Amino acid sequence: GLVVRLRLGATSLAFVSCHLAAHSHMLSRRNHNCSELLRETASALGPRHLTAAAQFDHVFWLGDLNYRTDLNAAAAAAGEEAPFPTDEEHHGQVLRLVEQGDWGALLGADQLAASRAAGEAFVGFEEGPIAFAPTFKVERSSELVYQQKRIPSYCDRVLWKSAAGLRGAVSQTSLAALPRVSTSDHKPVVATFSLTPSEALRGTMQEVRSGGSRGSRGSSRKSSLFGNVSSSFAAGSASFTGSRAYASLDVVRPTVRIRGLSASELVDMDYTGGCDPYCVVSANPYELLYCAAHEHVLKKGEAAASTVKHGQDCTWPDDEVPLLRLRGVRTAALPHTTLLLAVLDKDNVILGKDDPVGVVQVPLRPVGWSQDSDLPPSFEVEFDEPLVQGMASTDLKSGRPLGRLRGTLSIATTAEAIEEALAEARADGAGEKARTVKLGASAFERRWRCC
């Protein structure tokens, strides 16, 4: 497989092209191929615990994915006996469905759809409606003629995934096969998309001089995300460095407080069973968190056992979770950002690498928020989500779910609300015992040194 990353203005994109394992009985190998591709490219793209499926605004996945049509497996999943005991009968029934144009019945027996439903691959990805015949395996001709030795299948696919705060920014405008192309035993598939660009990370000097895009309704997708604020930043306004005085922007530094953070049903990661979890908090855009490393690492709470066995919960006490401050951000742009909470298993072997367990993405906006509404001065976002590692929420070896992460985000967005949130946090002792460290230090022991 191949992963290509690029930036289109302020929009971060990744494109994954791959050719997965062939043959109908190799479904498990195909799912492993996807996880392997993401795992082996993660460190070359960014933080090792965040794969291409989690660290970009949008990722597009395309290629000969080789997922097959399997009517017998679909029947077995429904608790029925296999209706087609021979390949000839199976092939004949699939051909009849093709002739009838019953795409729904064919896609109901699609291995990729079954893998998504089971949490084994492409969790969180989207795919447009397929309204054409299977593209494999065909004769090399300008007509659609299927070879007898393979079951007609939708092997050639295009899927995409957006960060939680940017869902809806990508829409598919077309998806079609090209049946007259005769250069392969596959018919090619073409997809087109419309993409709303992400906000710029920095306001331009022209925007600063003119006061920027100040509207909070409808214009938020056009405004820049961050104001270029100096260290003398005051909530509700921004002063800019330089010899000239520039207009103020509606820029604040919101607070994000994480309460009741806990993980449950964590999959066994250690050789002897259990898991030694800790949590890494980062964001999309990556620079959104106002700290040198743009990440916070939360060591496991002392109240939990040293190793969490399967079925036990791991809880991070509120006084061990730091109060997060965001960079100067325009209030109207905040709903398009995402908090990333990754759970990792600490490897107690000297010089060993800690293993990612999974990631949860939480958009920084109220439930039910729409583009035409203003953000309230303060709001809460409750989350209780399955952990997703790469593109799977299930451990491909054991078949168990990776676990769940739950908690509540309390977010303050205006100057007055921020002051109240800070006062409440001080009174509650929030983060007093927080132990945040910088990832990626050269020496192993520095990974656990408190800042």
Q: Could you explain the architecture of this structure?
A:
By secondary structure, the protein is of the alpha+beta class. About 15% of the residues lie in helices and about 25% in strands. The chain is built from seven helices and 17 strands. Strands 8, 11, 12, 16 and 17 form a five-stranded antiparallel beta sheet that branches. The chain has a four-stranded mixed beta sheet with strand order 1-2-3-4, covered by helices on one side. A four-stranded antiparallel beta sheet has the order 10-9-14-15, with no helix packed on it. Strand 2, helix 1 and strand 3 form a beta-alpha-beta unit. It is globular and about 75 Å long. It starts with a strand and ends in a 23-residue tail after the last helix. The C terminus is likely disordered.
Topology summary:
Blueprint: E1 2-8, E2 11-19, H1 27-45, E3 58-64, H2 71-77, H3 87-100, H4 103-107, H5 111-117, E4 156-162, E5 170-177, E6 189-195, H6 205-210, E7 251-252, E8 255-264, E9 277-284, E10 296-298, E11 314-316, E12 324-325, E13 329-330, E14 338-345, E15 355-363, E16 378-386, E17 404-412, H7 415-428
